[in-house]
TrEMBL record:
PROSITE patterns tied to this protein: SAM_MT_UBIE, UBIE_2
EC number(s) stated in the UniProt entry for this protein: 2.1.1.163
UniProt xrefs under InterPro entries: SAM-dependent_MTases_sf, UbiE/COQ5_MeTrFase, UbiE/COQ5_MeTrFase_CS
Matches recorded under Gene3D superfamilies: Vaccinia Virus protein VP39 (3.40.50.150)
EC category: transferase
NCBIfam families, per the entry: MenG_MenH_UbiE, PRK00216.1-5
The protein's name in its UniProt record: Demethylmenaquinone methyltransferase
Pathway: Quinol/quinone metabolism; menaquinone biosynthesis; menaquinol from 1,4-dihydroxy-2-naphthoate: step 2/2
Family, as annotated: Belongs to the class I-like SAM-binding methyltransferase superfamily. MenG/UbiE family.
């Protein structure tokens, strides 16, 4: 397929990412103007992984974010629902455990991770509340959630420029750097359709997380959301 529609059927979105796996990191760096590295640094700092901890990196893609988290000495599990991404990740980062699975049905026991993080993948999930519930389930009491995702710039002039970039500039860059330009048409559409910072915060709280907060990166083009599983929480069904 050349482009996934906004119904976000899991098998179609997974197939789309299979098709861009080899050049994914190169294209992302080009499209972000180099900011992808800064966003990753901010995410790792927010997760604050420790050597004795277990960290789950969802929508890990080829493992670039997982490798950054693993530098702390934490045991990182990289999970993605694209077989192509997982294959490339295993080849590039044999030291990291990769799991091919859907974020709405995490193949792990309850309360085993100290931190769960997902970068630029939540908006590709068909059932976001279910995915957040699964993240809550696998976190230990007191565990940390960190979500890095494209968002809505609060300043109207920045927002207008960003929408123009998504509509005009990004397709041109993707045409040069990617093997599947349709995937990046979908990317722009999915960003504009995605909930803003406050709406996503409500979804996170609804999943049971407390201490929910966010901060904008790059003028709100990206937002870094955080939450905690209560230390003495009742298991959610």
């Amino acid at each position: 397929m050349s482009q996934a529609d906004m119904s976000k059927r899991p098998e179609e979105v997974a197939g789309m990412f299979d098709g861009v796996a080899k050049g994914y990191d190169r294209t992302n760096n080009a499209l972000s103007g180099g900011n992808a590295v800064l966003w990753r640094v901010a995410t790792v700092k927010a997760v604050d992984p420790k050597p004795s901890e277990r960290v789950l990196d969802i929508a890990a893609g080829t493992g670039t974010s997982s490798a950054a988290l693993a530098k702390s000495g934490a045991a990182v599990t990289a999970l993605d629902f694209s077989a192509g991404m997982v294959a490339v990740g295993r080849e590039r980062h044999p030291e990291i455990e990769f799991v091919e699975a859907d974020a709405t049905e995490l193949p792990f026991e309850d309360e085993i991770f100290d931190a769960v993080t997902i970068s630029f993948g939540l908006r590709n999930i068909v059932d976001v509340p279910k995915a957040l519930s699964e993240m809550y389930r696998v976190l230990k009491p007191g565990g940390r959630l960190v979500i890095c995702e494209f968002s809505t710039p609060p300043a109207p002039i920045v927002r207008a420029g960003y929408w123009a970039y998504l509509d005009v500039v990004m397709p041109l860059v993707a045409k040069v750097t990617s093997t599947n330009t349709g995937a990046y048409d979908y990317l722009g559409e999915s960003i504009k359709a995605w909930p803003d910072q406050l709406e996503l915060s409500v979804l996170i709280r609804s999943a049971g997380f407390t201490r929910v907060a966010y901060r904008n990166l790059t003028a709100g083009v990206v937002a870094l959301h955080r939450g905690r599983k209560p230390a003495a929480s009742l298991r959610r069904s």
